[in-house]
Amino acid sequence: MTSIAITTTITATPMLMTTSKPPAKPRRSKVVRADTAYKAATLPTVRGMGEAEAAALYRLMTWLSPAFPVGAFSYSSGIEWAVEAGDIGDAASLGEWLAAMLADGSGFCDGVFLAHTHRAAALGDGPALREIAELAAAFVPSRERQLETSAQGRAFIEIARAAWNCNGLDAMIANCDGAMVYPVAVGLVSSAHAIPLAPTMHAFLHALASNWISAGARLVPLGQTDSQRVLVLLERVVVATAARALAASLDDLGSATFRADLASLRHETQYTRLFRS
After folding, report:
1. CA 273 to chain centre
2. How many beta carbons lie within 10 A of that of residue 71, not counting itself?
3. Does residue 19 have a pLDDT over 50?
4. Which of 163, 245, 157 is nearest to 201 (CA)?
5. Angle subtended at Cα 120 by Cα 116 and Cα 122, rounded to the nearest 5 degrees
6. What's the CATH fold of domain 53-65+73-269?
7. Per-residue pLDDT reduced to its tens digit, 186-235
């Protein structure tokens, strides 16, 4: 037999190569998306807080934020004169001045007015609301202090009625018979929205202290770190003042910060002024 040799040439072209196994699937990355991790971390907290509590916190953070347009940034509560007079010249002296204003001055008194307004509004006690509002409007040591608290109170109410209105708010406002200073306005609106009194009080005093520190930081001036140190210093003062204001009666009202009251009076005739009070 004759043997015939058959030669076959195979060109190794990748496109012609075949395999009986399917291609391997790419491995999935084990990197967790940031938004997924955030949701996983915060979901139990949100659920634990409750919808009503979360809404209350949201509103308090909004209403008492420095960005809420009540014009708080334009008032210093007499701090401008205290800086010019040399009573305040650094972070330590600013902290001491503000601690006194909170514990024994306008901070405590405003807290008492807020608490009694909140309770009277919750009970629907119109005559009590009127008496508290009138007393709070009269309980100021100077013309500029009157301008400060009444202007912020009116602005707070106007914004609340325009953007955060709720059932019963207009009737509560009418009961005050036109007298509307800042702590009364905050107590009224927070009560109308059924926000508990205690967190409202702490948020209000924190916002008050923060605004005073902001004014002092611009006037001394202070850096951001020193401003935060003053805020840390005032934490215990805010907590203690809130507790006292929540337990106080209207008969407990009183101020022992004569120098701060004098500063508010002297600011009216101060030659160079950056602030309205």
Report:
1. 26
2. 13
3. no
4. 245
5. 120
6. Urease accessory protein UreF (1.10.4190)
7. 999 999 999 999 999 999 999 999 999 999 999 999 999 999 999 999 99
Output the pTM of the full model: 0.83
Contacts for 267 with CB less than 8 Å, ≥ 6 apart: 76, 78, 80, 81, 142, 144, 273, 275, 277
Q: How many helices (H) and strands (E) does the chain have?
A: 13, 0
Distance between CA 232 and CA 207 in Å, rounded?
A: 13
How many C-alpha atoms does 103 have within 13 Å on its Cβ side?
13
* Spatial distance between the Cα atoms of 159 and 63, rounded to a whole number of angstroms: 9
Q: Are 180 and 133 in contact (CB under 8 A)?
A: yes
Return the SS3 of 74. helix
Structure-block tokens of residue 26? 């790419």
Q: Token pair for residue 248?
A: 């106080």
Whether the pLDDT of residue 7 is over 70: the answer is: no
Question: What is the token pair recorded at 143?
Answer: 């013309």
In this prediction, residue 1 carries a pLDDT of: 43
